[in-house]
Amino acid sequence: MVIPVSPPSGFRFLPGHFDREAQAALIAAVMDATQSAPFWRPTMPRTGQPLSVMMTNFGPLGWVTDKAKGYRYEPAHPQTGAPWPAMPQALLDLWAAVSDFPAPPEACLVNWYGPDSKMGLHVDWDEEATDAAVVSISLGDKARFRIGGPERKGRTSSLVLSSGDVVVLGGEARRCYHGVDRIYPGTSTLLPEAHFPGGGRINLTMRRGTIPG
Ligand code: SIN
Ligand code: FE2
Question: What domains lie within the chain, and their CATH numbers?
């Protein structure tokens, strides 16, 4: 996969980082986690508009959003009130290998994209530790990922992410706008239909929430 125009520095693309077996193990971990932390559909701050992705989290903190309180990290699931399930070791290992940060991640957001889901351009900026990279893993159907610069209106480039690919947003890329234009439905058989009706794509995004003390 060739990246069409040069991405911001600190952007790293590790195609095929996880093989099929490792991908299946991560999906099994997601299915296991959803027994206590089911996918829910978050809503946008102020408007209450539902997101097109469903979400859950791993780790001591989880990223959530709703109409009343907006974007934030919470230690518990908004519907069950239970703590988020522990982060799988494979994710902690990936973070240790690629994040270049001296402390473990606190949150792993699990986004489930259906065939029509997308994610508008945004910057991940709800963390205190903005010097820690964002590390993201693609599982299931392919997606067109878009990344620009620190200004919303800046020039962007895009690349297709496939199951097993890893993207690291560190350095300059950490404060760059990015999003997902579209999913390519039916391009992967990784997600079991019984657990993920309609299939789609799972994105796991690890972040450090707080500054290590
Ligand atoms: C995100 O930016 O939160 C998700 C990116 C992705 O789904 O690849
Ligand atoms: Fe993001």
Answer: 11-207 (2.60.120.590)
- Ligand with minimal distance to 175 CA: 2
- Give residue-wise pLDDT tens across range 153-193: 999 999 999 999 999 999 999 999 999 999 999 999 999 99
Of ligand 1's atoms, which has the minimum distance to the CA of residue 109?
A: 3
Q: Is 178 in the pocket of ligand 1 (CB under 6 A)?
A: yes
Cβ of 162 below 6 Å from ligand 1: no
Residue 179 CB partners (closer than 8 Å, separation 6+): 118, 119, 120, 121, 122, 145, 146
Tell which one of 57, 63, 73, 111 to mutate to probe ligand 1, the residue whose CB is within 8 A of the most ligand atoms. Answer: 111
Answer whether 0.90 is exceeded by the pTM: yes
Q: Is the dihedral of CA 161, 180, 130, 59 positive or negative?
A: negative
